[in-house]
Design a protein that fits this description.
Largest sheet: 9 strands, mixed
Number of strands: 11
Shape: globular
Strand content: 5-15%
CATH topology: Rossmann fold
Bound molecules: 2-acetamido-2-deoxy-beta-D-glucopyranose
Length: 425
């Protein structure tokens, strides 16, 4: 349903754009090729490369690992084991930082802005062993030992939300990363849904808290009562029915990775296209508006890697949080199904007081998806939280990953805190 709407909107955009194609497109391309920067040296190429190839292109070391969860989902991890310019020492034991992306994105979030800007590169240069996760169901983790994500007759593969990403993916990934790296604990950095999944993980699998040296929640999302995301607002009144309706017509997946968005981004959202401002508006609609931190030149790369796919239930579960104001497990919409699943007629809340790992909440005032009031409530319920407000009032949700000054405004303090734990100066 939603997918259709979005496609219609995009089609209208395509035809509009085709009609008013910019005459400057070719000279822009020449200009793009002539500039040398430490960001992206070719946005059209970067839009097409998968994460491991993108990392290789910028001459960073990369490893691809796969982990199978207890319930059979096969997840792909991307690792940058050491730096390129600084700390370029292979096979040396380094402190581990694990990065988990937000909703509809992938590990690409931490590298697509390029060396010097992407958090994964910055951490590798600072001497860390960097691991990037991909949540079940996204472009890189769309596999299972027996279930078929493409089946229209049976959407069993897609019967998960960020509850399972926290409860099932994260324990498997943390065990794996610690085993391979030979470390006893790691630092966790999540953005948006990557924080929600952590809060599920830390409260449902409290035995893992000892393995988390520090947790950094960029744009923390648990309570949603004040959420202002247009997409989630739209879903929220239908949140307990949307999944069963969608699965009736064989849909379990929402906004999968597709070539259409990629080619659309490179054709119509590039510098020199008269249509670029419309692309920026679409970007603000999804990620929050802040023109100061938005680099429109990067739109083709962002659109080459996003959306990366989620389950309908992920969206519905967030919608429920807006509708009922709780941070609790998925509501199946009727007492019997809830009872069968949880042994209670209503879904049990996540017990945030069980999270004993130190949690740093990096939040901002202009975040429509992680509203200050909701962050405040989360802060009160966690047992050992520390708050860091981004010192720029206009900083928005998506700026934590793609913002022009994300490094100076957020990453530098995250890295300082982590170095403090590791005794690195
Ligand atoms: C925007 O991105 C382009 C391409 O990566 C880069 O050359 C440029 O310096 C960036 N602009 C800012 C303000 O960071």
């Amino acid at each position: 349903m939603l997918r259709v709407e979005l496609l219609v909107a995009l089609c209208i955009c395509v035809s509009l754009a085709a009609a008013r194609r910019s005459p400057q497109a070719d000279s822009t391309e020449k200009w793009m090729k002539s500039i040398k920067s430490r960001y992206s040296d070719n946005v059209f190429e970067d839009a097409l490369l998968d994460v491991p190839d993108l990392i290789r292109k910028y001459r960073y070391p990369v490893e691809v690992h796969s982990v199978t969860t207890q319930d059979g989902y096969i997840l792909e991890l991307h690792r940058i084991p050491h730096g390129r310019d600084a700390n370029n020492v292979p096979n040396q034991k380094k402190p581990v930082v694990y990065l988990l992306h937000g909703m509809l994105t992938s590990s690409a979030d931490y590298v697509l802005m390029g060396p010097g800007r992407g958090l994964a590169y910055i951490l590798a240069e600072e001497g860390f062993d960097v691991w990037m996760g991909n949540a079940r169901g996204n472009y890189y983790s769309r596999r299972h030992v027996s279930l078929n994500p493409d089946s229209k007759l049976n959407t069993a593969y897609w019967k998960f939300s960020w509850d399972q990403i926290g409860n099932m993916d994260l324990p498997a990934v943390v065990d794996y990363v610690l085993a391979v790296s030979g470390q006893k604990g790691l630092h966790y950095v999540g953005h948006s849904q990557g924080t929600t999944s952590f809060f599920v993980f830390g409260s449902m699998r409290p035995e893992y808290n000892d393995k988390i040296i520090s947790m950094h929640a960029l744009a923390p999302v648990a309570y949603m009562a004040h959420n202002e995301s247009p997409l989630l607002q739209f879903v929220s009144p239908h949140a307990t029915r949307i999944e069963s309706l969608a699965s009736l017509i064989g849909i379990g997946e929402f906004m999968p990775s597709n070539d259409f968005t990629t080619s659309f981004g490179s054709k119509y959202c590039r510098d020199g296209s008269a249509f670029q401002p419309v692309c920026s508006s679409l970007f603000f609609y999804m990620g929050g508006r802040n023109e100061e931190q938005h680099n429109a030149t990067m739109l083709p790369v962002v659109m080459g890697h996003t959306p990366a796919g989620i389950s309908v239930r992920q969206l519905a579960h967030y919608g429920q949080g807006i509708a009922d104001g709780y941070f609790r497990r998925y509501d199946f919409g009727n007492r019997l199904s809830n009872f069968r699943e949880y042994g209670s007629f209503t879904p049990p809340p996540y017990d945030l007081s069980k999270i004993t790992a130190p949690v740093y909440l990096h939040y901002s005032e202009n975040d429509h998806l992680a509203h200050v009031n909701d962050v405040e409530r989360l802060y009160k319920e966690l047992s050992t939280p520390i708050k860091y407000r981004v010192p720029m009032p206009s900083f928005a949700h998506i700026d934590f990953t793609y913002g022009i000054n994300a490094k100076e405004l957020v990453y530098d303090s995250v890295i300082n805190i982590i170095k403090g734990y590791e005794g690195i100066v």
